Amino acid sequence: MSVANARGTAAVSWGAERIDVFWVDFDGALIHRTFDHGAWAEAESLGGSLASAPAVTAWAVGQMEVFAIMADGALWNRYWDGAAWHAWESLGGDLDPAETPAASSWGADRLDVFARGRDGRTWHRWWDGSSWVPWEQLDR
């Protein structure tokens, strides 16, 4: 697992001297590697069968979420809670697997993700601190 063979690389930092890098390996799995206080850790597979490149955002120190579109056209996510990775979860949607989603956070407990639908339109879904709000179409 090397970044040299990476497809669709994304990176985020949730703290000082910390970088988390994600990419899709040759078999479609999400790969994760960290740079922490001057040293690179070994890469680890987070599984999945990604059709799109990943998108990632951090919403607090030690907390981040990574998103990808799978072959089923749904947006899937995994998140790090500061101690462990949580399993892949489907956020639904009828999205274009050839497109890369985008993710952002404006603070603790707020995540926004954007993706191109199979209908060619831009769709938005967000975490409001307690649940995922249903998809909304942005370009009408």
Structural descriptors:
140 residues; mainly beta; Neuraminidase; five-stranded antiparallel beta sheet; four-stranded antiparallel beta sheet; 13 strands; globular
Would you kindly provide a written description of the structure presented here, covering whatever features stand out?
- This protein is an all-beta fold and 140 residues long.
- The protein has a single domain (3-137), classed as 6 Propeller (Neuraminidase).
- It has no helices and 13 strands.
- The strands form 3 sheets. Strands 1, 2, 3, 4 and 5 form a 5-stranded antiparallel sheet that branches. A 4-stranded antiparallel sheet has the order 6-7-8-9, with no helix packed on it.
- The protein is globular and about 45 Å long.
- The termini are far apart.
- The model is unreliable at 1-6 (pLDDT under 50).
Cα radius of gyration in angstroms: 15 Å
By CATH, the superfamily comes out as Fucose-specific lectin
Supply the number of helical segments. Answer: 0
Number of beta strands:
13
Query: What shape does the CA trace take?
Result: globular
Strand content: over 45%
Low-pLDDT residue intervals, each spanning 5 or more residues = 1-6
For the record, what CATH class applies?
Mainly Beta
Distance between the termini: 42 Å
Query: What would the average pLDDT be, to the nearest integer?
Result: 93
CATH topology: Neuraminidase
Major beta-sheet overview:
5 strands, antiparallel
Structure class: mainly beta
Number of domains: 1
Instruction: Tell me what the CATH architecture is.
Output: 6 Propeller
Percent helix, as a range, is under 10%
Question: Helices and strands, in N-to-C order?
Answer: EEEEEEEEEEEEE
